[in-house]
Amino acid sequence: MDMGIAGRWALVCAASKGLGRGCAEALAAEGVNLVITARGVDALQAAATALRAAHPGIEVRTVAGDITTPEGRATALAACPQVDILVNNAGGPPPGDFRDWDRAAWIAALDANMLTPIELIKAVVDGMAERGFGRIVNITSGAVKAPIDILGLSNGARSGLTGFVAGLARQSKLAAANVTINNLLPGVFDTDRVRNTSMGAAAKLGKTVEEVLAQRRATIPAQRFGTADEFGAFCAFMCSAHAAYLTGQNILLDGGAYPGTF
Ligand code: NAD
Predict the structure, then answer these.
(1) In the prediction, which pLDDT does 32 show?
(2) 237 CA to middle of ligand 1, Å?
(3) In 114-211, which ranges are E strands?
(4) 177 CA → ligand 1 middle, Å
(5) Taking residues 227-243, what's their average pLDDT?
(6) Measured from the CB, is residue 14 less than 6 Å from ligand 1?
(7) What is the distance, to the nearest Å, from the Cα of residue 23 to the centroid of all Cα atoms in its chain?
(8) CA-based nearest residue to 257, from 185, 156, 207, 155
(9) Are 62 and 54 contacting, i.e. CB atoms less than 8 angstroms apart?
């Protein structure tokens, strides 16, 4: 299927690795020009080199910096001639017990996983509406639908974003102007983050990382973790011309892990 977005420009945040990288790859395959961001310069340049080699017909620009800071956002936005597609993403907050989190910990989580995407949406959404096309996908988490006790910072901050988006996406000024805003909720995906958190769990439980990963896989009906490629493919469809009637939705990709009917 031709997604109908070749030649458009996308800003994909936190895209040198993992889920953001998967989204960048899938959009590049559809002929979308990219601005990709990440904190580490080396991994970002490596990602850009691979994307350019695989998709010589598109332009790939890089912005190294922390997207959760005003400077990081300003530089990323300035690098994009026009943002037709915005994929909001940043690292997730650390796990822990809420008794140990002070105000600064909460503000950091809110900044990264709620206020940063809102600021970026604010910067691009009216231009999208004027041009009659816009696609915004926020990478959130399955924890929005089924909270994970040790990820209270994520549960809270991402739920705030979700509530905000639910209202904004339904504004006629946006929905009638072919601007959609949706959230894509990963269950467990095979990325560095999952490997790193499993290393921490393994050390605490006195198990090997492979044992912890195998236990996690066994809890998922699909009996495996998702891949960044399949996450990216879904994101590309949500950004496509065909997805114009999909807005304000929370799409869970979790191999069947969420146990509810709806
Ligand atoms: P990852 O650690 O594999 O990749 C993180 C990428 O984000 C890297 O490119 C890194 O440079 C970049 N990055 C992180 N913080 C940044 C910042 N402040 N500014 C700019 N770039 C930044 O992570 P992932 O597994 O792809 O996860 C992406 C998001 O999805 C995270 O918020 C994570 O909490 C969430 N999530 C992931 C899973 C999963 O199973 N992988 C599940 C639920 C939610």
Answers:
(1) 98
(2) 20
(3) 134-139, 179-186
(4) 30
(5) 98
(6) yes
(7) 8
(8) 185
(9) no
Whether residue 135 has its Cβ less than 6 Å from ligand 1? no
Cα angle value 68/17/178 (rounded, 5°): 65
Residue 180 has pLDDT above 90, yes or no: yes
Ligand 1 centre to CA of 82 (Å) is 24
Give me ligand 1 centre to Cα 30, in Å.
23
Tell me the pLDDT band of 157, cut-offs 50, 70 and 90.
Answer: very high
Long-range Cβ contacts of 235-238 (<8 Å, 24+ apart): 235/22, 235/23, 235/26, 235/27, 235/87, 235/137, 235/139, 235/184, 236/3, 236/5, 236/23, 236/26, 236/27, 236/29, 236/30, 237/3, 238/135, 238/137, 238/180, 238/182, 238/184
Which residue's CA is the nearest one to ligand 1's atom 8?
Answer: 17
Ligand 1 centroid from CA 21, angstroms = 9
Q: Which of 145, 131, 140, 77 is nearest to 112 (CA)?
A: 140
pTM flag (> 0.85):
yes
Q: At what angle do helices 228-238 and 18-29 cross, to 10 degrees?
A: 50
Q: Is the CB of 194 under 6 A from ligand 1?
A: yes
* Average pLDDT rounded to a whole number, residues 163-171: 98
Q: Is the CB of 16 under 6 A from ligand 1?
A: yes
- Looking at the DSSP assignment, which residues form a beta bridge with residue 137? 87, 182
Decide whether any atom of ligand 1 lies within 6 Å of the 139 Cβ. yes
Answer yes or no: is the C-beta of 193 below 6 A from any ligand 1 atom. yes
Is 22 in contact with 228 (CB distance < 8 Å)? Answer: yes
